[in-house]
Task: structure prediction
Amino acid sequence: MKAAHVLVGSVALAALAWGAFACAPSGFASEATIATVRILASSASEPYAKPGDTVTVQVLAYDGRPSKPAPMGLWWLPFRCENPADDAYYACFAQFPGAGADAGAGADAGAGAGAGAGLVLMAGQDLTPFLISGPSMTVPIPPGIITSHAPVAGTAPYGLVILFNFACAGHLEYVPPDPSNANPQQIPIGCFDSQENALGPDDFVFGFTRIYASETITDVNPVITEVDAPRGPLAVTEGVTSALAVASCSGSSKCPQIPIGPIIEPPLAGREVWVDFYSTAGSFNSSARLLYGATTGSVGPPSATDTQFAAPTDAGAQLIWMVVHDDHNGASWVTVPVSVN
Result:
């Protein structure tokens, strides 16, 4: 049986240390520096949807590998997982068509697009021709998603749909779980090169996105209006700003610290909102910053929430990403091109 080495990338995690430094221990790269295949975030057009709505999910992904023997592709399994046991993403694996005795139970092979309708997962088969490709996938939310979810004490009725996405610099195959391994989180999809070698976390990310359904909760994604920068705010147009020009760092211990951070519309009351920072080069003194507290509101103006960016030593074009999350499953992002002189 082939081994599938993957990096499990939940793109719906919610809890960070707000003062977490991006500086990594000696010999280790910062998670904020993108030098591999990465899925940085995902966002549903309706973080909380109504039954019967149609929701589009997008992912933010980037191939930061310095060497690219094969291009990175983005794919989605062409079916949705509905109300898995205990809301656990890995409980969906038994719903994958062909993955077990109850194959297909709770899964809809026609949920996404016709490309994968009727797909049955078989070991060793190249799945990519049957998957949905690209950075987004659209699904209908089943009318009965709330009523079919087991009640949770102390919580208003809700439903849950999970979609699975992959960034792979190769092709995808179904990898049956090892029966001798009792870990329920064994990933049943692997990424392989043209010689059938399993690719590792530098070349493969497994991701998933949760879409909640509620009749009473209405939520929207955070809205990034501008990016704070030393020479004045940068306008955001379709998720991208104009280029930020910065001086390269001489490599001394006194590299210029450039304040930068998102400016967002005030969120709905009671939301906790934070931002994660990523870049292709350079470093941040803090890779995550709290913007709003659930009970305290705004942390303050940009001077209180900006991170400090130190440019790399080499001149050239780089990228910074800011991913804004809230604790109601919302997310949005902005890309800042950086010109290092």
About this structure: The chain has one helix and 24 strands. Confidence is low (pLDDT under 50) at residues 1-29, 100-117. The chain has two domains: 7-213, 224-340.
